[in-house]
Write a structure and sequence with these properties.
Layout lengths: L1 H20 L30 H7 L4 H4 L13 H19 L5 H17 L4 H10 L2 H7 L6 H9 L3 E3 L2 E2 L12 E4 L4 H10 L10 E4 L4 E4 L18 H7 L3
Antiparallel strand pairs: 1-2, 1-3, 3-5, 4-5
Helix pairs in contact: 5-6, 7-8
């Protein structure tokens, strides 16, 4: 009798940990942020009843407000410490979700390398941090509308369909430099063309990229400037508090 109870108790514990580790749908991560971080039109067109709560949260958002970098959501909390923690957490979640789900370890590593290089280079810390994220290979494919999401861009890279200076690159975090040329395999030309046609071409590709949509080539022509940084994100993000939080 005791052995049977012990067995069922172990099963309940095992199921409890499985439920915690189970992956939740992507759209549930947007609920606490109250913001369409990835600028997806699908968020406003759910038909199932279980998404009614989600639709109510986003019903007031219009297309004009989706691209307003000055608008942001800040919830109310009891004390200063919980409010500050939630503010930093939402800040991190917005940035992570926008780039397809960066892990905390990767963000910490990027912040530490940014602060080290900042001492030797005459650049603003925020610009240097954004430059490390925006010069990634998967970011370049997403910004130029060659892929409809970061996940799709990473699949193209992992399947050896993307070339940098006529060489296959399989690392998503490959940092591009001025003068680099990105080309694609001919097998994915039709797929990329469909992605470009289906996109709304908003936001417009950054100025440091020269895109030839006939030959499907991307050329890095200049460095990122501070004046263009705010236009890269359709939501509010406090980079100063983010860098201070992950500096530890």
């Amino acid at each position: 009798m005791l052995g049977g109870l012990h067995f069922w108790f172990e099963i309940r514990i095992f199921m409890h940990f499985i439920k915690k580790r189970r992956n939740k749908p992507l759209y549930k991560k947007f609920l606490p942020l109250r913001k369409n971080v990835q600028n997806r039109n699908k968020l406003l067109w759910f038909r199932k009843k279980k998404w009614q709560k989600f639709q109510r949260a986003f019903s007031r958002l219009k297309k004009k407000k989706l691209h307003d970098p000055k608008s942001y959501f800040l919830s109310t909390f009891k004390n200063f410490f919980s409010r500050k923690f939630k503010y930093n957490l939402q800040n991190k979640q917005r940035l992570s979700l926008f780039y397809g789900g960066f892990r905390k370890k990767y963000l910490k590593r990027v912040v530490k390398s940014t602060l080290k290089e900042f001492k030797s280079l005459n650049k603003h810390v925020t610009v240097l941090f954004i430059e490390k994220l925006e010069t990634r290979l998967d970011t370049a494919l997403y910004r130029t509308h060659f892929s409809y999401s970061f996940k799709n861009a990473r699949q193209l890279i992992s399947h050896k369909k993307v070339y940098v200076n006529n060489k296959v690159v399989q690392h998503n975090s490959y940092l591009l430099k001025k003068g680099d040329v990105i080309t694609l395999d001919k097998d994915v030309f039709n797929f990329v063309i469909l992605n470009i046609l289906d996109s709304e071409m908003w936001p417009i590709p950054p100025k440091h990229f020269y895109v030839n949509y006939k030959t499907l080539q991307i050329l890095v022509i200049e460095d990122i400037h501070y004046t263009n940084c705010l236009m890269y994100y359709p939501f509010w993000i406090d980079f100063n508090s983010f860098l201070k939080f992950y500096e530890r």
